[in-house]
């Protein structure tokens, strides 16, 4: 038996150096737990489903599929993607691999290359406006009480703040 929890989001990322805005959808997130023959496994979060990234300025877009692990066999964290030039129906690049590992690119030119190795990526600190400068419904402002109570391990207060 699988326990599935579902959530979905849409976001906007701005690349200040290029004055580009990307609208993206996110994959679904599932809380998974398998109960077979009274053996309870450790729960895990799994990403699954289709999402997209679109830039209105350049017209480039990508279609991404996060593959959920089959019940028997298969691998976790698989991803496939296609990247399209403006107004093209065929992708100029296809990507496959693991979203939390190495992804490989295949270009229509015949070139194959490592697209990205997430394990080798440096951690970059986010630039976030101070809470007092954020609007009421910006993420950090909206969730500040939940975050604080989770940090101090007060689950009841975090749950109350979430409501």
UniProtKB/TrEMBL annotation:
One of its GO terms (molecular function) is sterol binding. The keyword Lipid metabolism does not apply. Residues 1-15 form the signal peptide. The keyword Hydrolase does not apply. InterPro entries: OSBP_sf (IPR037239), Oxysterol-bd (IPR000648). Pfam families: Oxysterol_BP (PF01237). SUPFAM superfamilies: Oxysterol-binding protein-like. This is OSBL9 protein. The gene is Osbpl9.
